[in-house]
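Researcher: Good morning. I'm working through a list of sequences from a screen, and I'd like to move beyond sequence-only analysis. For each chain I'm collecting a predicted structure so we can compare shapes side by side. This is the next one on the list. No need for commentary yet; just the structure.
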Amino acid sequence: MPNTLFETPRAAETFLRDSEKGLWISNKYVEAVSGETIESFNPATGEKIAKVSAAGADDVDIAVASAREAFDGHWSRITPDSRGRLLYDLAAAIEEHAEELAELETLDNGKPLSASRRDDLPLAASLFRYYAGWTTKHVGHTIPVSSGNFHCYTRNEPVGVCAGIIPWNYPLVEAAMKLAPALACGNVMIVKPAEETPVSILRLAELIRDTGFPPGVVNVLNGHGETCGAVLARHSGVDKVSFTGSTAVGQKIVEASAGNLKRVSLELGGKSPNIVFGDAPEGAVEGASWAINYNSGQECTAGSRIFVEASKYDDFVASLVSETEKLKVGPGLDPGTDLGPLVSPDQLQRVLGYVELAQREGATLETGGHRLVDEARANGNFIAPAILTDTTNDMKVVQEEIFGPVVAVMPFKSEEELVGKANDTLFGLGAGIWTSDVTRAHRIAAAVKAGTVWVNCYAAADPAAPFGGYKMSGYGRELGSNALDDYTETKCVWINLD
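Model: Good morning. Structure tokens for this chain:
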């Protein structure tokens, strides 16, 4: 681009100079058996930033064999304290290379560099540091049984070879959310990045090697869902799959896992209600705008259905339009950008299609919903964030996950009406409540069917707090001590003392 502001940053340049990367198996790059490759593009400019090998079934076999050898070998004999030290050192390495990783994330995904620096990299590092502390603390229990003179106790043992299938909206954070608890429990993992965003995870793999993790403990298979992810899901040598992505793909993974009844945990789609009462505190409008527009709406928890108490509805919509129109949409490397591009041309067309469909169904477009094209955004996947009114619960734009900056705003008159509409969805991942009445906040939080409820805030996250969904938003939990249970088998041991 003509403006040097948007050229490849220096910290990322060294890694991208050799723009062709292989698969990462046994702590080194290897070419795919088929020789096939995938190209990765900057969503802000359309320019190719890297070419990576694309794994097929043969490569999955090789990676699984490498992981199994590591699990059965040196990794199984390393002490919990040593595992914790490695995870702690990896967190430090991520922080040391934070600028490079943040730039790679922005170049590959499109999100503002300020968000990569401020949110993604600190969280990724803190995840490894948090689970480093759990390696010596995820303990079994002694059980005072009453059926005889026995010493009965439980052991928490690693599941084995795990596969982590990563989405494109948070490549590094999602990889860390799966790797950190899996490794803390003594498992090994094959990471399958989204085909759109492999770059930052490959750099993370290099740091994992440099930190001292043995070969095969973490392998990375770039590839397409059909020829790599699906193969991992049905592979008899994989003991567990952790998947984050669409509900439709999650259902296919469950079906594929039946061959060896492998453990599966799923964090899937959402259509989260964001509820604004008449007594909402100051900041509700800004919070609601952030809830749908952060990361350009490419959020499983995006507050894409806003329910506003009828008495405040008109004023709220006017304020939300004003707040939304202040947002600057532009390249992620521009320090003034609030919203970056969507991840791909296909995703842009998908989101635009939903806006058009909503209007055909009778919705009113208050602002946005069109592609942005000018000198700085000519070849990127940019969209003006959209606000829709006059929507009803039977519209597809209200029921289906869009994964873009498109929000439907609807009024309600009573709590009973509100709860019915809020829960009238297949999903149950997140929900927001804005009110000054603490009793009401607890009452509505209990009534809403969602895995996480935020009150007078939205999308707050911490490594110690569990995260996951109800209904078609998946099962299992990531983060916190709950995630450890998904990566361990519980063994009960009986010792006869007579």
